[in-house]
Amino acid sequence: MRISYAWLRDYLKLDLPADELAEKIERTAVEVDGVIRPSEGLKKVVVGHVLECVPHPNSDHLHICQVDVGEADPIQIVCGAPNVAAGQMVIVALPNSWIGGHTKIKRSKMRGEVSNGMLCALDELGFDEKLVPKEVADGIFILPADATPGEPVFSYLGMDDEIIDMSVTPNRGDMLSMNGTAHELAAIYDQTPTMPKVDLTEDAADLADDDLNITVQADEQAVPQYKMRLIKHVTIKPSPLWLQIRIWNAGMRPINNVVDATNYILMQYGQPLHAFDFDQLDAGQVNVRFAKAGEQLTTLDGEERDLLATDLVICSNDKPICLAGTMGGLATEVTDQTTSIALESAIFDAVKIRKTAHNHNLHSEASMRYERGIDHGATEKALDAAAAMIAKLGNGTVTSGVVVGRDEDVKPVEVAITLTRINHVLGTDLSLDTVSDLFKRLDFPTTVTDDTFNVTVPSRRWDIHIPADLIEEVARLYGYDNLPSTLPTGQPTIGKLNETQQAIRDARKLMESAGLTQAISYSLTTDSKARAFALHASDVTTLDFPMSSERTTLRLSLIAGLLDDLAYNNARKEQDVALYEQGRVFFSQPEQVRPKEVEHLAGAITGSMVKTAWDTAATPVDFYQIKGIVAGYLKSLALVDPISYVATTAHAEMHPGRTADIYVGDQLVGFVGQIHPTTAKAYKIRETYAFELDLAALIALPKARQQYQPISKFPSITRDVAMLIDDTVTNADIVALIHDKGGAHLQDVHLFDLYNGKHVPEGKKSLAYTLTYQDQAATLVDEDVTKAFDKVLSALTEDLGAEIR
Fold this sequence. Notes:
EC number: 6.1.1.20
Shape: elongated
Keywords: Aminoacyl-tRNA synthetase, ATP-binding, Cytoplasm, Ligase, Magnesium, Metal-binding, Nucleotide-binding, Protein biosynthesis, RNA-binding, tRNA-binding
Mean pLDDT: 93
Family: Belongs to the phenylalanyl-tRNA synthetase beta subunit family. Type 1 subfamily.
Protein name: Phenylalanine--tRNA ligase beta subunit
Pfam families: B3_4, B5, FDX-ACB, tRNA_bind, tRNA_synthFbeta
């Protein structure tokens, strides 16, 4: 909401700097984005009077103008604007002046003719092109005839004003109007605002009811109020300059005197209005209802829109002519041929308008106010004010009476609160007189009985309903800076992380110590990516109103987001990337109201984790490297149950021969492996390995108590064994058997050689292991180790069919 400081002075006596006023608003009411000074950065831009305008001898579109700029002699300026003519008052940028876009104007020659400056259009002064009136959009702006040549142009265009740009929060919709803002500032500065008066003259002989007939078919919740007035014999023309200035300083484009009047009242009262060309209505019939399936409406922006059953529409003889509270229809647009105006003022349900604006992507000044609330008590007053202004600006007459389709009995809200409660919540010691004065400044009629305030809240402050709202008002006006500061009482506690938080933090540290870099990706993705890499079967959760087609569905896995990150890096020539992400995934079942949020940990690596150096060769990541990272992390958790890796083909997006599910005991906690080449190609990445772990499940699993054990002071003994064994026998099977038969002193089993080439029979492989024996309490003797080792050799031969070499 852009508030004109000059307009505010029509309401209040304000002489403080605009920056100070903006800071006060921000401290007390709503956030302020900044103060806009339209003339800032402009220099030597003055009023000029075109004395003569002749065609340029060397151009078919340029003109040579002699312009009076208040100096002893006129200056010559070459201008290409199609609407320049002798006798006009124009905007002149003198030589060495500065105009919009920090552009300096110099004396120059155009097609051989000297040009001492420039005749300016509004956009050349820095106006947004969307705010420039259409009649001068392709030419220069013409100033009023009484403008004085040589004077700075800024006061004639309202550019000497200061605009306070407020970011109004949803609960303070009353400040989306000049009246509401004036009431707020009057309370802040303890003034009585001068509110606008409505001077409406009606034609008693011409009754509006005779020409207009309104039927409201929608329910009372959707349309609490709907009223219209009829203005006849209106002449459509551009608005006077003072009105255009107020319109464009508020951030809207001047259209004509009728539309500008409705926008002016919108800014003044916060009440959206709409003007229909009465002659385009079917016999003056107006009805308000919900749209029907298959109906269409061409709106003022020229777009043909398919209406939805949730859309409120204004109809004439049941034919849609307007999207209620959002945008009018093209068929009933006010044009230069319009002579009679049917003016609408209504209250529509905020939720309905919000849905319509969102579904049709039509967010307007009107819909924004309906969404945040409207003063139900000012609907007819705003209608009268707009009718009076249209009649005055268009030399028309207002027919007698308001045509009412639906009305409501608007009563002020009464709220009671005690002084004791106010002081208790705010920690203050305010007196009855102080609080009474604050309610008086708010213009809330108040009666005091003993310790209790009975406050009557006018309809313009529809955000106040309960005692807590009044406490907030007292705190705001009294000043947050004036509230006492106290330290909390009680025994302080030492802040620390809980078990889950500590486990998550430890997981991040371990991933980073392993060489991975943290990534954070979006929780929302496409439907196909959301379903990919899911650890458990689940429905997906989709948004009803996604912001884009790329962010429609909550993810079931973290890997898809990491692959997007890898693709982003690969596209920028970063081929060696190792990323991890710790975040939540969202599992959903049909019977669930909302999805279950589960903490996961995932990683993805492509290229090499070791850079090439003079003594080191880069080694592409493989299955065993990423499995080693996962194994190292799982070992750090000291899980009670054994960890196992089981080859799987259940994950369609993973390589069927290089992927393993990870189990702790019998519980599936994740998977690790290579991304399927087809999936990698779809993401435009190279060979990539990834893992995903159910972090929440891992945290919940039982842990062994980790205790310190001193290093044994007794020597260890090693034995090596090499064997030929079937390819179908896994390393895990062999290691498990060795540990089972190796005896109490077997400390470690290490695979140091794997051979599967020449001199090895078909279907066989050669494996070699080192077994380490050590006693924590005594020195082992060879006989004991040999005895235990022989048991291992026998078991390998008998149970697994190994051939010891």
